[in-house]
Design brief:
By secondary structure, this protein is mainly α. Helices cover 50% and strands 7% of the residues. Strand 5 and strand 6 form a beta hairpin. Helix 6 runs antiparallel to helix 17. It is globular. The structure holds carboxymethyl coenzyme *A. The site of carboxymethyl coenzyme *A has 20 residues, from helix 16.
Length: 428
């Protein structure tokens, strides 16, 4: 028998349905609450609010589990392939050989930007934050591909998804080249997704960048670990924009802006800044921990804590292992890794962090990883966005195909003035 919850207000009782997900997690369905009771719920930050039903990603924050379409992320560690995972998230199953070939060909066919888009890059100052360029340029894509505003069938959708996923890496690499005043390096159709990105980032017109297979694997795995994370801030933003029936380019451009902040994707950059500061002697790891605990300080231990994970973030665990491999392979002795390890050790033994269940999140070690790959700090969050794009597209599609979805429009509790009379200027 279906379970219900009972709510009593002023002596009157209401039965509210309880819905159960495939992993047993439960929610009280309040869709009729205001109609029946005249009341709304209050949940700033949406910590207790399920905004949708979704079949894409499952997280158990208490146990530290993350699965894409049912597959644990750990399964992607061997022979990591970001394109396969993108396909899985968006279309719901791992592609067979023909589907993979077809999707990869679409990515290759769409890797160039319209030549006139180059002028847009030239219009940005060289000091422009790459996240601002990324968001602006994804929105600019909608000026060139507006035939995809109406997605009539699955083929049109797949073509639009391939364009976005392919072009974001060209935009990301071009924004980096622009910041250094270097010539743009065009994509090479012979290279696979991640290798092609590294080529556009680091090759010179007279010298092809050599891509070591281990580095290509590390890049693939890093993007996979960022590929989706259910209803986080940027994904919820993408869904909210889509709910007004805005197109996928516009929705993802908004997602980039939401990701930019330091509490979300921007944390990876801030972790590196924090580690650098410690390295340069500005502050010790012990002082860092002390400041993070001080309620009079706005300082937070960047790369620690998570709304959903109350256990070690499984992505951080994988990246931590991968960092060791890449540093060894590249014979890099990065002093920041020892500082990061020391901070982790101090925090995990401190009752402040233990009591609040604050563990390293994905951003804690990803910066060191990206540094080892030669990626500059101001590009870290851009790489996060490249990785998250398939997740945004998958969530956009899921909602777009759900005929029961309504425009997102929360309510509020008004706490302003009661009715007042207007005072003419001369009487104020
Ligand atoms: N350093 C110090 N204290 C912290 C931290 C931290 N990094 N994170 C949470 N706390 C404390 C917080 O002050 C609060 O303490 P109290 O109960 O005494 O008031 C308690 O832990 C609960 O924190 P919260 O702010 O209510 O938690 P939240 O779910 O609203 O915020 C978070 C989650 C990720 C924004 C937060 O943990 C944080 O600011 N972390 C640092 C930024 C960061 O690493 N962000 C990346 C998140 S993972 C990747 C992504 O999603 O983008």
């Amino acid at each position: 028998m279906a379970q219900t919850a009972t709510l009593t207000i002023d002596g009157k009782t209401y039965e509210l349905p309880i819905i159960v997900g495939t992993e047993g997690e439960k929610a009280i369905d309040i869709t009729k609450l205001r109609d029946q009771t005249g009341l709304i719920t209050y949940d700033p930050g949406f910590g207790n609010t399920g905004s949708c039903k979704s079949a894409i990603t499952f997280i158990d924050g208490e146990k530290g589990i993350l699965r894409y379409r049912g597959i644990p992320v750990e399964a992607f560690e061997t022979n990591p392939n970001f394109v396969e995972v993108a396909y899985l998230l968006i279309f719901g199953h791992l592609p067979n050989a023909q589907e993979k070939l077809n999707f990869s060909e679409r990515l290759t066919k769409n890797e160039l930007l319209n030549e006139s888009m180059k002028h847009h890059f030239e219009g940005f100052p060289v000091t422009a934050p790459p996240m601002a360029i990324l968001s602006a340029m994804i929105n600019t894509l909608s000026c060139y591909h507006h035939q995809f505003f109406e997605l009539e069938d699955n083929d049109a959708f797949m073509e639009m998804a391939a364009r976005l996923i392919s072009k974001i890496r060209t935009i990301a690499a071009f924004s980096y080249r622009r910041s250094l005043g270097l010539p743009f390096i065009y994509p090479d159709p012979k290279l696979r997704y991640c290798a092609n990105f590294l080529h556009m980032m680091f090759s010179l017109p007279y010298e092809q960048y050599y891509i070591e297979p281990e580095i290509e694997d590390a890049m693939n795995l890093l993007l996979i670990l960022h590929a989706d994370h259910e209803q986080n801030c940027s994904t919820s933003t993408v869904r909210i924009v889509e709910s007004s029936e805005a197109n996928c380019f516009a929705s993802c451009a908004a997602g980039v802006c939401a990701l930019w902040g330091r509490l979300h994707g921007g944390a990876n950059e801030k972790v590196l800044e924090m580690l650098e500061k410690i390295h340069q002697g500005g502050i010790t790891p012990e002082e860092c921990i002390k400041m993070a605990k001080d309620k009079n300080s706005s300082f937070r231990l960047m790369g620690f804590g998570h709304r959903v994970y109350k256990n070690y973030d499984p992505r951080a665990k994988i990246i931590k292992t991968m960092v060791d491999k890449v540093l060894t392979k590249r014979k890099i002795n990065d002093p920041l890794i020892n500082i990061a390890r020391r901070i982790e050790e101090l925090a995990l033994a401190d009752s402040y962090f233990i009591d609040r269940k604050l563990y390293p999140n994905v951003d804690f070690y990803s910066g060191i990883m990206l540094r080892a790959l030669g990626i500059p700090t101001n590009m870290f969050t851009v790489i996060f966005a490249m990785g998250r794009l398939p997740g945004w597209i998958a969530q956009w599609r899921e909602q777009h195909m759900d005929s029961s979805m309504r425009i997102a429009r929360p309510r509020q509790i008004y706490i302003g003035n009661n009715e007042m009379s207007f005072v003419p200027l001369e009487q104020r």
